[in-house]
Amino acid sequence: MLVGLVVGLLRRGRRGPDTAAPPEQRRPEPGVDYRPGVGDDAEEPRDTLVRDVETVRLPDSVTEPPAVEDVPVAPEVERPAPAAGRLARLRARLARSNTALGRGLLQLLSRDTVDEATWEEIEETLIAADLGTGPSLEIVERLRTRIGVDGGGDPRAVLRDELLRAVDPTLDRSLAVAPTATEAGVHRPAVVLVVGVNGVGKTTTVGKLARVLVAEDKDVVLGAADTFRAAAAEQLSTWGERVGVPTVRSDVEGADPASVAFDAVKAGADLGADVVLVDTAGRLQNKRDLMDELGKVKRVVERHGPVDEVLLVLDATTGQNGLNQARVFAEAVDITGIVLTKLDGTAKGGIVVAVQRELGVPVKLVGLGEGADDLAPFEPDAFVDAILEPAG
Ligand SMILES: Nc1nc2c(ncn2[C@@H]2O[C@H](COP(=O)(O)OP(=O)(O)O)[C@@H](O)[C@H]2O)c(=O)[nH]1
Ligand SMILES: [Mg+2]
Q: Which residues are in coiled coils (predicted)?
């Protein structure tokens, strides 16, 4: 409110007569810069009402308005919209991938004669979009057979078919987020561990995913197991508060991440929650330490029961480097799904194919922006369509 006020004042100041402004920037004034005409006042009219100062008695007792702090403010809990179909709605965010990959390939394939040099260009375009050498060669081979040799078919339809095949629509991309009951009949929330190196978008993804689940009427608990910086827990609980989801955190910087994760799952079980999302740290002195710590977090959480989902978050703009990270993480924990963030900022949408091949694990979610609801379930059809068709 204060910010709004200040901005308002500044604006008004700018709009008012500014005598300090150089003459060429002043608004022309009637009587000074031109002869006053109809509708202008040459000077302050003489009959302008002037108010005298009046003395008014104040009432003896003035009831104080309640202090702002005393007024109970109902926390505004947001109700996010369901995530189904988001990728199609956010297709414009893939504009860069679209231009580089989809349109580039279509232009090449639509040439009158697709000669050897053109096939090479097609291959280069695929590799440049980070699909990886293996998948790129495969796609070119299949396209050659279907278009080059058969000479038939609509190039667009054939290309769509082959890209879709590379992305693999048969993979199960659902998230394991259903609670279970143990043999002893104890309620056990689904546990999702979110891992990845620093800055890829883990905390943001946990926050956005909490919103997706809340939109599906799930009870969610967040665990702030990135205990490196107090700010990390703060960032996570802010996401949680917006949708009325509790965050289990330690206020001690450098607390044991495994015990925070353990407590979060315990709180989830006690509260009868459906899902516990655990955010982890991606920053440690070295790779070995990071992997040891992750392994420990997972083992400690598993005292409550199995971890249902380990999501590896990768920044789509980092290309080969992202693939190297994927390999290292896969050694430390069993990855069950990939989240590719920042797909809105890259022409290299082909990384979806490369990373799935590398890990043998499906991309389950994609990040398409910094907004709270810019996380979309990955849908192969919608993805390929977005790449091939200019967003309308
Ligand atoms: N453009 C874009 N930015 C993102 C996306 N996901 C996360 N970010 C940004 O990446 C930065 C790092 O995110 P954060 O969640 O703190 O990363 P963490 O260190 O892995 O937890 C933040 O500025 C996020 O807003 C995305 O899908 N698109
Ligand atoms: Mg973080």
A: none
